[in-house]
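Q: Could you fold this chain for me?
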Amino acid sequence: MRSNYEFFADNHGYTQNLLAVQASSKTSNNFILLEILEFLSNRRKDRTAFKIEGYHYVPELEFHCSKLGYSQEDINWALEILLNRGLIVTDHQRTKGITSQDYIKNWCFWLLSLEIFGIKN
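A: Sure. Below is the predicted structure, expressed as structure tokens.
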């Protein structure tokens, strides 16, 4: 029966709960996940030094998030979480081990989900 379906279990379907507190979390603010996805989706048509649409250099994202008050450790933690969940993709196509030398791209339709639930600004 469909009543036993696990909506927000890790690695179970395409639905992800971005605001759930992670056991391994060292940050006090899970909204950094939304900030990173918003940054990438707003710039998904931009061509950067990577010369492919949508890929952004990690230090560029780190600079943007640091202006918002997030620490370097929080940014790296959030990037790993998003990469492990498959919400972003890197230029090396691995699911672990993001570094400051990588390019990343948004790989999900999170904005559509926020608009459906009425959380749009």
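A (continued): The chain has one domain: 29-116.
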